[in-house]
Structures are given as structure tokens and as C-alpha cells.
Inverse folding.
């Protein structure tokens, strides 16, 4: 279970030192898949990074049922000095303490799963955007995390690749059983993947409803977001 | 009014950098005595930084050897009308200063700049976050191997560059000023001794340790974006250069004091 209580964050930029979001309180059950949506710049990435322990909140606290986290970054964050295969080997040998031989087998298996077997020896900058995303997914999953954070996994991808990644996410979730948090602005993927959907707007969370409930909600922020209406 | 604000801001950032440098030094030293060895990464770093810089060092120190002999010969002729002291003066100057500072400054512009921009880029592309999430210690994985590689490389490069400089100085002295090789080496032995070699070794050791740490501090503090990486790299090179020159002065004093003149 992930318990978030009264979470708040502000960046001390030169321009603003206002709260990005404030008093966020929610709970995510084990093995649940929860989607966070919200306009650009509302702090979705920041929220995920705080949950992942990469940023400190300025307010509130978070309790995780398990510290074993994996994250797919919005910027992919692949290790660009390592080949695709080595990107998977590093977590296995460093984080999971596997031997080189075991790690090699495991890495091969995961490359196969994400369809990058033929690109094992290529460096991240030699891969296409979609391939990088898939490698990012593989790197997050290779350590078998109990909590998985996806930051915009299908952004900027064509519908076919986007579907491939979504199918991959569903398949891997079935296989490895984990709590999944997804940030996306793709309504189709959100309703397909999420058990519940939240909307982050004006520094507050709305919704937290199952997909149908979210689409039919009469909360003004959600209506505005779903239909892309203006105030 | 505005100047004192700027000045105090400047002092504050420098102090912050210094404290971060100190913290990093503590962590790295701790790993030297107790952490994982990381031999593979160290070897890679030595090949990447140590060997790559070798041609530049050979060229610049060879020319230093040529120039310095000419300079010293001219000064000696002007002042005491004799050039028999060329080997002694050259030897002292090369072992104490030029042979040590030139490779150090070349390492600053090579390893130092590369390290800052590498770590800075890793930061702006979230790669550092990815490492943290995998519970990989940044100091152990990124800083320590380069720290060891830098010390090892700079000590070797310094000894090598002293050799190359003196070799080319010897060539000029024999071709242009009619020294025989034996004569030159004998004169050299009179003026430079084991102490000077130890002094050069110590300086190389300190520079080799300080340069990668300063570079890493600037890399970790890098601001977002290409401009952030550029600024961090520039600042890192400037600070490193000043520190090398300043430390050279301090170390010359200290070593003279400890080892005797
Ligand atoms: N390191 C930082 N320093 C200062 N401000 C930041 C930092 N990171 C993010 N911000 C600010 O916080 C706000 C939210 O950023 P965040 O990346 O969380 O948005 P997002 O919801 O993920 O947007 P997108 O959908 O475009 O990815 C932005 O206005 C951004 O300027
Ligand atoms: Mg984002």
C-alpha cells in the first residue's frame, strides 16, 4: 500500500515560490494500477519523483509498503555510455547482486520481451524513440520492482507503438504482480490501463475514480480536462 | 551596494563548493579503504583519460623542452656570460614546476572538463536519478573509479612528461650549445636529486586527487539544460586551473620546507 498524506511541493525559482501542489492525500492499494493525468506543468513528474524518493517534499509524508521501486522516466534516462544490453546488466549486477552469467541470461530474456533482441549491442542514441521507451521499460522491470512508476510511457509515439507499449505494460503486470503508477495524458491508455484515474489540476487532486466514473464525473476540472474545454 | 551583495554571493558559492568538495573527498577516501574495488571501471577510465591525453602531453612537453633551453641559455649569456649551467637550471625548473604543472593543466582541460560535462549531462537527462533509484551509489560508481584513475594517470604522465621535456632539452643543448650527452647528464645530476623527484611525485599525487573531485562537484551542481552543462564545465575548468596554480605555489613551499631546499 502507498499512503500519501498532506503532500506539498514548491520550487524556489527566481520567478515563483508558490506551491506547485499542496495537501495531496491519497492511498493506493497493493497491485492496483492508478493513473495520474493533468495538463503540462502541473507537477505530475514531480509527484512521481517524490514518491520514488528522488525529490524531497516540502510538506507531508509518504509511506510505501515496499522500497523496491522501478521507474520509467519521461526523458528515458537510459545510461548513454552503455549498450542496450549493458543498460539491463547494470541493474542486475549492481542492484540485484547477480553474477555476470545469470545477469546476461536475464538481460537477454528481457530484451526478447520488449522486442529489442537484435539491438542488444546498440547504444541508446542509436535507438529510435519507441525503442528507447521500450528499453526504459525493460530497465525498470528487470529488477522486478514491487512498485512501478511510469512517467508518460507512450508520449510522442505513434498509435501502433503506443499500443505495443500498453500491451507490454499489461502483460508484465500480470507476470510480475506489482503496484503501478502511471502518468499519462492519453485518455485512451488511461482508461485501458488504470483501475482508478486521478486528475492533477490547480495543485489539487480530483477524481480517483474507476475509468467510467472518471469519464462521467461532473467535477468541473475533470469535465474541462476530458473535453478540453476552456474556463 | 550592489558589489558587496555580489561579492558575498560569490564567497557563499565558493564556500559551498569547498564543503561539497570536502564531503566528496571523505566519501571517496572511505571507499579507498573499505569499498568495492571497481577494477574494471578504473581500467576503463585510465585508458579513456590517461592514454588519450598522452599525444598532447608529448607534443606540449617536447616543445617546452626546446623553448626552455633557449630561454635559459639566453639569460645565462646575458647575465654571467657562461652557459655551463644550462642543465642544472633546466633540470630544476622542469622537475619543480613545468614538468608538473603542464600535465596537470592539460588534465584539467581534458579529464576535468569531460568529467563535469559527463556528470552534468547525466544529471539533466535524469540518469543520476535512474542510478539512485537502482540504489547504485553515485560516489562509488562514478567518482571513485575516476579519482583513482586520475591519480594513477597524472603521476605516470608527470614522470613521463619530465622525461620528455628533459630529453628534448638535452637534444637542443647538444645540437645548439655543443654539450655532450654525458656532460649534460653529469651536470644535471649535480643540480637535481631524489628530493626533486619526490617533490614532483607529491605534487602530481595531490593534483591527481583534487582535479576529479572539483570536476565532480561542479557536475553534480549543474543546472538544467545544455547551457547549464556549458556553464558548469567552464566554471569547473576555471576553478581547477586556479586551484592547480595556487596549490603548486603552496606545495613548492611545503616541500621545500619539509625536504630542504
Ligand atoms: N528542478 C526544478 N527546479 C525548478 N522548477 C522545477 C523543477 N522541476 C520542475 N519544476 C517546475 O515544476 C513544474 C512542474 O513540473 P513537472 O515536470 O512536474 O510537470 P509535468 O506535470 O510532469 O509536466 P509534463 O506533462 O509537461 O511533463 C513546472 O512548472 C516546472 O517549471
Ligand atoms: Mg512530466
Amino acid at each position: 500500500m502507498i499512503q500519501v498524506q498532506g503532500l506539498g511541493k514548491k520550487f524556489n525559482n527566481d520567478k515563483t515560490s508558490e506551491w506547485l501542489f499542496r495537501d495531496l492525500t491519497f492511498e493506493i492499494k497493493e497491485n492496483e494500477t492508478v493513473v495520474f493525468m493533468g495538463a503540462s506543468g502541473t507537477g505530475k513528474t514531480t509527484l512521481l519523483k517524490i514518491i520514488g524518493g528522488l525529490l524531497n517534499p516540502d510538506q507531508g509524508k509518504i509511506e510505501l509498503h515496499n522500497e523496491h521501486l522501478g521507474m520509467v522516466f519521461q526523458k528515458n534516462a537510459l545510461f548513454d555510455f552503455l549498450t542496450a544490453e549493458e543498460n539491463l546488466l547494470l541493474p542486475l549486477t549492481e542492484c540485484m547482486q547477480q553474477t555476470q552469467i545469470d545477469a546476461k541470461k536475464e538481460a537477454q530474456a528481457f530484451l526478447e520481451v520488449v522486442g529489442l533482441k537484435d539491438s542488444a549491442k546498440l547504444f541508446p542514441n542509436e535507438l529510435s524513440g519507441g525503442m528507447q521507451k521500450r528499453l526504459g521499460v525493460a530497465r525498470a522491470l528487470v529488477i522486478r520492482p514491487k512498485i512501478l512508476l511510469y512517467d508518460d510511457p507512450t508520449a510522442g509515439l505513434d498509435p501502433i507503438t503506443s499500443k505495443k507499449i500498453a500491451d507490454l505494460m499489461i502483460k508484465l503486470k500480470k507476470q510480475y504482480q506489482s503496484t503501478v503508477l502511471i502518468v499519462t495524458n492519453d485518455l485512451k491508455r488511461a482508461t485501458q490501463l488504470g483501475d482508478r484515474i486521478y486528475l492533477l489540476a490547480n495543485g489539487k487532486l480530483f477524481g480517483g475514480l474507476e475509468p467510467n466514473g472518471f469519464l462521467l464525473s461532473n467535477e468541473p476540472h475533470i469535465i474541462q480536462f476530458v473535453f478540453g474545454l476552456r474556463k | 551596494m550592489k558589489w558587496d551583495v555580489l561579492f558575498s554571493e560569490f564567497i557563499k558559492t565558493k564556500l559551498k563548493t569547498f564543503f561539497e568538495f570536502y564531503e566528496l573527498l571523505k566519501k571517496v577516501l572511505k571507499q579507498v579503504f573499505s569499498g568495492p574495488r571497481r577494477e574494471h571501471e578504473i581500467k576503463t577510465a585510465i585508458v579513456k583519460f590517461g592514454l588519450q591525453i598522452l599525444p598532447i602531453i608529448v607534443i606540449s612537453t617536447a616543445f617546452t623542452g626546446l623553448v626552455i633551453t633557449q630561454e635559459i641559455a639566453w639569460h645565462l649569456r646575458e647575465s654571467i656570460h657562461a652557459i655551463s649551467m644550462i642543465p642544472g637550471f633546466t633540470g630544476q625548473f622542469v622537475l619543480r614546476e613545468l614538468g608538473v604543472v603542464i600535465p596537470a593543466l592539460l588534465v584539467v582541460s581534458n579529464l576535468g572538463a569531460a568529467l563535469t560535462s559527463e556528470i552534468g549531462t547525466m544529471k539533466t537527462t535524469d540518469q543520476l536519478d535512474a542510478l539512485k533509484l537502482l540504489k547504485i551509489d553515485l560516489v562509488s560508481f562514478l567518482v571513485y573509479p575516476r579519482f583513482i584513475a586520475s591519480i594513477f594517470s597524472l603521476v605516470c604522465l608527470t614522470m613521463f612528461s619530465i622525461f620528455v621535456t628533459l630529453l628534448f632539452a638535452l637534444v637542443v643543448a647538444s645540437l645548439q650549445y655543443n654539450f655532450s650527452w654525458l656532460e649534460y647528464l653529469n651536470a644535471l645530476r649535480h643540480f637535481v636529486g631524489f628530493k626533486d623527484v619526490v617533490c614532483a611525485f607529491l605534487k602530481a599525487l595531490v593534483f591527481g586527487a583534487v582535479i576529479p573531485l572539483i570536476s565532480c562537484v561542479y557536475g553534480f551542481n549543474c543546472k538544467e539544460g545544455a547551457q547549464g552543462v556549458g556553464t558548469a564545465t567552464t566554471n569547473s575548468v576555471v576553478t581547477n586551473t586556479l586551484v592547480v596554480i595556487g596549490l603548486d605555489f603552496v606545495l613548492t613551499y611545503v616541500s621545500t620546507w619539509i625536504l630542504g631546499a
